[in-house]
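Hey, resending since the last one bounced:
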Amino acid sequence: MPEPHSPADDSLAVALKRAAASGGRLASPVPAGQVSARGARRRRRTYAAGAALAVCLVSGGAAVAALQLGREGEPVGPAVPPSPTKSASLPESSSLPDRSGSPARGSSPPTGTPSRMPSTSLPPPDSATPTTPPTTTPTTAPPGD
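The structure tokens again:
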């Protein structure tokens, strides 16, 4: 449904049409030679900018490749950080609590319970064949304890 027009809208429309007609008669277009010359200049600037960008990209890639080739002698680090291990720099009698559940060094397991921890001692350095750890048997407490 069209909106109702007021007489003020009609007079405004007529005035704008008159202004557009008089402006169109006074406008003078630019000659075609100048328009084509502007287009040619813009095209040359666009091509020059593209060529400069290509030179920058190729020289940057070549510089990165040259730096990578110069680092052949350096060792490559691991892709994943190594898992945490017990530090060898801690003293034997560390003040940190032992959370492994094994008895402290130098102490024997409680009597009446079998030792489930295998021996982890290394063979002597002068032996040629590996030795097997000694087997432990459960000990029982004497009846009067």
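DSSP finds two helices and no strands in the chain.

Sorry for the duplicate.
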